[in-house]
Amino acid sequence: MWAPVGFLTLTLLLATRLDCTLALPLAQIDRSNFTSFVAGSTLVLLLHALPECPHEPSGLRPLLSSVTGLLPAAVRVAVSEDAQLAETSGIRSFPALRLYHGDADAPAVFRGPLTSATALASHLRREASPALLEATTTENIYEEIRASELTAVLFATPGSMARTVFAALPAADARLRRQVSFVVASPSLANELAESSGKLIWHGKGQGQPFLVLCRGLDGPDAETFVYPGELSAEGNEAASGEEATAAAESRAHTEAILEQQLASWLGLYRLPLLAEIGPHNFDQYEARGGVAAGGRAEEAAPPLPLFWLFVNASAEEAGRNDDARELVRSVAAGWRGRALFVWLDAERYEQHAASLALNRELLPALAAEHDGAHYVYAPPTRKGAAAPDAADAEGGGGGGVGTSAWEPTVAAREQLGGWVRGVVAGTLAPTLRSVAPPLLNLEPLTIVVASTFDELVLEATVDVLLLVTTDWCDGCEALDAEFEAVAGRWQDESRVRIARFDAGVNDLPRTLRIDKLPTILFIRAGATDAYELSHHRTERELTDAIVTHASTTLERPADLEEIRQAIEMLPRLQSETRALLEENARLRAELAALRQEQVLPQQRE
């Protein structure tokens, strides 16, 4: 059984061995007990839901109920259907899973596995405590490897330097603690493991000396086992005294610090699979795309790594082609561990992302890459017998997929793909330009700019350009589109100004324009290399004022066509009102004249 180190309990051991879990009722949380519940726990996984939520998976609550029996008392799982409580945690959509580390005001988005109760329990244990798990049998080790995404097993005797350093890693490196399960065991268990199953082969390691093994599963295409190649033992003068003892202690502390950095760097190198399916459960691990600084801790991020996306068709009839593509990409990825990241995903489920990378979903599998703000599409040569892509697709740059035989993991295919990956990483390839076809005439007051015409109509234009960068799916952009239409109509007769719109959802922007939000309004003066950010202007009048202010030449404010139209429409009414006023004036003048006449006649009689 497990020794009492960390949070793995006998309950977990029995449940795992019997392939069952002890389902317990989920605690019910609302505003009345939320703060005390969180404060009284080391870690809380809280499901924020609604009484009737159509988006909640049917198996989610049973999974959470089953995991409660696998956790220590201080790690708790609960559910809340209090909408106002969810709002205080910043939740706007349901269901939502949040982690609370003893602080009700500091929720964190849960991104762990929801594949099984044991995997979830292992993840929550790591979240709750950096403590080691100590294995006393070979089955203990297998249990943790099966339940965890990644397991580091150190075979070393108690009190050794290796154990001291290994114990410090999960406490000092939060990212490693969330991803790696740390297990310590006696060196004698290593021989038992090798002899009992043959699944974990140590290549002569053991013999009483400490060594470290990193395991990602036991079976399947992603299963991997690595043995730390460095030295984990160091001799010291334990019997020294006085100055010698002080010097020995300082030397040991220095050696431990170096070893801790080396182990953290090595674990960080292998923390992600060669080729993993990406999704909500692990997206945050790839989002930053950070590497590991040489000789440094995993959290000391190097520049972002290139990220390669393999899009596949998840339908059953495409299984063979998908497997070939994954095997080919995985074989190439093996040579780029630590220097590039590789993932695969379903092109149908993530069609919007496929489109953003200029991929044609009709040609799958397809491979694209993102690196240094640019993206690239792989187009391997179609070999004899493979279905060729349409010429129009190839000419338009929307390829990236080829016939079945082009993805067979042959030596030639590996060399071809390896050369492309090398070019992407080195920056020697031209990025793929994602652009829709420009309008045939483009004679409307609002000029439509696409990626292929951006230089001509914006960056190299001989006129000033007011540019709206937006997308068709942008929330709240419709009102701004209408204002831009009005601005374009007002300035359509001014040849020194161009009012334009660019759809960033289907076109690539130049990398020199570091736009990080939509919509964005830019004003680029003729011949200038920089742009004015005018996104705070939202009305036709404000945009017109900005054009006059920033123009490269003196411009007269155009007449407001709408005001002129309204004035013209008012003319008949004004004419009628004027006629009525004139008639009223004539009547009053006649009445005044009559009154005067009445006053004159009596005076004449006298």
From TrEMBL:
Q: What class of enzyme is it?
A: isomerase
Signal peptide extent: 1-23
Catalytic activity, per the record? Catalyzes the rearrangement of -S-S- bonds in proteins
Give compartment(s). Answer: Endoplasmic reticulum lumen
Q: Which domain of life is it from?
A: Eukaryota
- What InterPro entries does its record include? Thioredoxin-like_sf, Thioredoxin_domain
Please identify the protein, giving its name as recorded: protein disulfide-isomerase
Query: Which CDD domains does the record associate with it?
Result: PDI_b'_family (cd02982)
Recorded coiled-coil stretches: 571-598
What Gene Ontology molecular function terms does this protein carry? protein disulfide isomerase activity
| EC number of this enzyme | 5.3.4.1
* Start and end residues of each Thioredoxin domain: 424-573
Organism equals Chrysochromulina tobinii
Q: Name one GO cellular component term.
A: endoplasmic reticulum lumen
Q: Pfam families, from UniProt? A: Thioredoxin
- Which UniProt keywords are listed? Coiled coil, Endoplasmic reticulum, Isomerase, Redox-active center, Signal
> What are the BP-aspect GO terms?
protein folding; response to endoplasmic reticulum stress
The similarity comment for this entry is: Belongs to the protein disulfide isomerase family.
Q: Does the keyword Isomerase apply?
A: yes
